[in-house]
Amino acid sequence: MKYRTVPACLALVVACAAADSHGQESARVLRNGTEATLSVFGPRPVDLAAKTLVDEFRVAINVEDPLYFYSDDVQFSHVAPSGKRVMVPRASLLEMRVDLRPDGSLRDVRQVLADLVETANAQLPFAYRIDRDGDTFTLVATRTRDEQGRSIDLTPILDRRISIPLGTRRFLEHVSLLTRALEEQTGFHIACCSGVADNQPGPPTAFRADDEPARSAFLRLVRSRPARNHLVRSESGAYHLVPSEPGGYYWLMKCQPGESWCFINLNPIPDAR
Hints:
Elements: H1 8-19, E1 26-32, E2 35-42, H2 45-57, E3 60-64, E4 74-79, E5 85-89, E6 92-99, H3 109-123, E7 127-133, E8 136-145, E9 151-153, E10 161-169, H4 171-186, E11 189-192, E12 205-213, H5 214-223, E13 229-233, E14 239-243, E15 249-255, E16 261-268
Helix pairs in contact: 4-5
């Protein structure tokens, strides 16, 4: 296990930064040679830790939210224009050590995520597992608390098996069939994707899913989709667009406390700097 107790001064700084605004987030990676400290504070600290690792080290890490039933696991955020009180998960602080290579990259992505999950499972009222498919990792919530605060097993939404008939469609048309299949099984409205993910409609592609976990079907769809075009300068000085390699995305699936809907936020992994 590779995490440390949060120093009081750091905990105070981060907590104070978030104290005046419900839902405010703070994340940082403090490097020191071949070690770094990852500190995050926010309503979804596992999401925030994964996003920080993606942004800082350009690795593929997805996170799937738990469902929120227990009142102590959420807090008031704001009042919507409709007058409805909007709740968010209760903010938490996570901190852990990260081992680096001399070039500044992660020494062992799998170990970093194992430490993150162990830290989160010890400090949060939820539990996560790690799924791996090639170089893509997914942190999946598998336990939550019921209305009485008792720890209960949770069937992850994307564990559900779905089928999609073979067809040639646009990316979001495939996704719509996938989310509709999940809605029929769970009763939850599943929305996807972010505007960033649809900035290149791309040509229609053939796709099908035969009684497989929705997660694996969605991952295949994501991997088939170019993340962005790159503006490249030629030897003559002229600029032209070059398509990127497909599959450069990660997702954060967030479920709204007190509501029967979840949103899959799909975003491109930043380019190497």
